[in-house]
Amino acid sequence: MERTFIYLKPNAVRRGLVGEIIKRFEQRGIKIVALKLFWMTREQAEQLYEIHKGKDFYEELIEFVTGGPVVAMIVEAPRVIDMVRHIIGKTDPLKAGTGTIRGEFALTITKNLIHASDSLESYEREYKIFFNEEEIVNYFLDV
Ligand code: CMP
Q1: 66 labelled binding-site residue
Q2: Where in the sequence numbering do the catalytic residues fall?
Q3: How far apart are CA 142 and CA 41, in angstroms?
Q4: Which one of 7, 21, 53, 128 is most buried, by most CB atoms within 10 A?
Q5: Span from the CA of 58 to the centroid of ligand 1 (angstroms)
């Protein structure tokens, strides 16, 4: 079974969209296997976004994601990496399809509400920045 890492950015928390966003994953049948609310440190943000270091949006992005609490989770389902990115929509809210999270609720690229790993390699790297293995819970979904 495939897993992916997701986190809801500070504007999702401050706008009270946590329930709305998680609902979209749950109603699709995606299982949450780890979940927490916390304030991301600069070290964690720099590690997460190391590939963007030096880009013009980098500083603004780091300031933004460390500027308020976030909700991070690990979710599980078949083909969940692509499925979650499909539900979220394209990085630029202008290009995110109608019905996607970013397409419905986001306005700017930096404040695009949510991040999800874009590949298995990214997932393996990203979840370890925020979660210990003991925080991942195994259980069965009910009907
Ligand atoms: P995220 O999925 O968190 O991954 C990198 C983030 O950089 C992206 O979402 C955006 O929030 C942010 N970002 C800001 N400007 C850009 C840009 N021009 N291109 C890509 N990502 C950007």
Answers
A1: no
A2: 115
A3: 36
A4: 7
A5: 8
